[in-house]
Design brief:
Chain A has helices at about 5-10, 10-15, 20-30, 35-65, 65-70, 75-90, 95-100, 105, 115-150, and strands spanning about 160-165, 180, 185-195, 200-205, 215-220, 225-235, 240-250, 255-265. By secondary structure, chain A is an alpha/beta fold. The two termini of chain A are about 45 Å apart. By secondary structure, chain B is mainly α. Chain B is built from 9 helices and no strands. Chain B is extended and about 60 Å long. The two termini of chain B are about 35 Å apart. Classes of the chains: A alpha/beta, B mainly alpha. At the A-B interface, α1, α3, α4, α6 and α7 of A face α2, α4, α5, α6 and α8 of B.
């Protein structure tokens, strides 16, 4: 840590006044965790500040000038400062010291309220958490924007997988149809042969390894040849064994399973 | 902006790594290295030396458990991690007392139950005030008094004070530096005159 910088910029004093920005405050606090010299500087600055404030308060109240100056519209701090300047210049220091001792108990600076301190810490923590969350969201937004701009560019050699429905119940055998996932974000086309397209519309569910639902949509109409073509962002497909369930949507009644397709995505 | 402390970052990361690897010497090094700073900040937060001592021990217990069980995301920020843990401990302690109704709804008690911290606090305050009184009396020029009071009491910006008084930054820094050094001497002299027990508590 650069002690010249700390000295030249009165970092301990500004820390005590609450004048450091959050990054500087954090950096200085962390530094005081390991630097005995700066810790002593901080304690000295706190003592000097506390002593000056007490002296100013004693002097100001002792003469009643504080109230008079405050009524004149000056800030409290300035009133204190100029009152003390005046008093220190005019009064013998012994007198001022006696005044100070007599009024010490009454005029000691108020103890910092631990509750306020705790609330302040809590608010600081919440702010730091919020900042972290915002950073994360910004990172995610940037990533998605990158994906989107990549996806919107014209693409060549888009992978197309023509799938035929499974003839039997899903079993332990791996799917015979495979598709290579592109290295970067892009599109993958699945051409689902429904064979007998007897419903006006269909709903589709894409399931990942272990049957986890990756995506679903409905209201899809097959082409006149009975093929339903889906374009999917490649980022939606994890490597592994995947399946597509297609249910027909009759005009009235519940969806009816029309076909199930299985394929392996290789990354 | 305060320049980053690269040396501390390297040492902190090394200590964190060694503790994670089961190095008992590194655990001792961690406590020795961060103990004084943590205690200072805990005392500032709690204003209660005995509570600060308890929280200090508890903080190191929690920090060591965390470091033994898993690596930190930012091991170079170990000091900050310890400090945050200590603050959370203090905050948790405060909340526990608040829930139990130890504090009046409107405000905390004026004095903690144990009179010792209050007495000590008053001693330190009186000591500081007396040292300042002597310091002010010793200051040779009206200008130096004005600088100290405007900066520390009125909390005016350094640039404003320098502009008003026609000072360079260096002159301003020198006044503050000398005042601080003299204040230190006066406080040390005062502490030497106090009882050993009181000095130990301070």
């Amino acid at each position: 840590m650069d002690h010249t910088y700390i000295d030249d910029h009165q970092i301990p004093e500004r820390y005590l006044m609450g004048r450091l920005d959050p990054e500087e405050r954090e950096a200085f606090e962390e530094h005081t965790m390991v630097c005995a010299e700066c810790l002593e500087r901080l304690e000295l600055a706190a003592g000097l500040r506390s002593g000056l404030q007490q002296t100013a308060a004693v002097a100001a109240v002792g003469t009643g000038l504080l109230a008079a100056l405050a009524r004149l519209g000056r800030s409290r701090g300035m009133a204190l400062a100029f009152t003390v300047l005046l008093l220190v210049a005019l009064l013998p220091s012994g007198l001022l010291l006696r005044q100070m001792r007599e009024q010490q108990r009454l005029l000691a600076a108020p103890r910092p309220d631990p509750r306020q301190e705790a609330e302040l810490q809590s608010a600081r923590q919440a702010l730091a958490d919020q900042r972290l969350q915002t950073e994360r969201e910004r990172g995610e937004k940037d990533r998605l924007q990158g994906e989107l701009s990549g996806a919107l560019r014209p693409q060549a050699n888009t992978p197309i997988l023509a799938l035929a429905p499974e003839r039997s119940a899903p079993g332990p055998r791996p799917p015979t149809q495979r598709i290579e996932l592109p290295r970067g974000p892009g599109w993958i086309v699945l051409a689902l042969d429904l064979e007998a397209a007897e419903y006006p519309r269909y709903q589709v569910r894409l399931r990942g390894p272990g049957g986890a639902l990756l995506w679903q949509g409905d209201g899809f109409e097959p082409d006149p040849q009975g093929t339903l073509t889906l374009s999917l962002p490649s980022t939606l497909l994890p490597p592994g064994d995947l399946s597509v369930e297609v249910d027909g949507l009759p005009a009235n009644g519940k969806p009816v399973r029309a076909a199930r397709f299985a394929f392996r995505a290789a990354g | 902006m305060i320049p980053p402390d690269l040396e501390e970052a390297e040492r902190a990361a090394a200590i964190a790594r060694r503790i994670h690897a089961g190095d008992a010497d590194a655990e001792r090094e961690l406590v020795e290295r961060y103990s004084q700073g943590l205690l200072y900040h805990l005392r500032q937060m709690t204003r209660d030396p005995s509570l600060a001592d308890d929280l200090h021990q508890e903080t190191f217990r929690v920090v060591l458990l965390r470091l033994r069980s898993g690596a930190l995301e930012q091991p170079e920020k170990l000091a900050g991690f310890i400090l945050r843990t200590g603050r959370n401990m203090a905050l948790g302690d405060y909340r526990r007392h608040a829930r139990r109704g130890d504090f009046a709804p409107a405000e905390l008690p004026a004095e903690p139950p144990d009179p010792t911290p209050g007495q000590l606090d008053r001693v330190l305050r009186r000591e500081a005030a007396e040292a300042v009184q002597q310091l002010i009396a010793e200051l040779g020029s009206e200008r130096d008094r004005e600088i100290l009071l405007r900066f520390h009491v009125a909390e005016e910006e350094k640039e404003t004070i320098c502009a008003d008084l026609g000072l360079t930054t260096l002159q301003f820094n020198v006044v503050l530096f000398r005042a601080r050094q003299r204040f230190k001497e006066l406080v040390e002299r005062s502490r030497q005159g106090r009882s050993p027990a009181a000095r130990k508590r301070a």
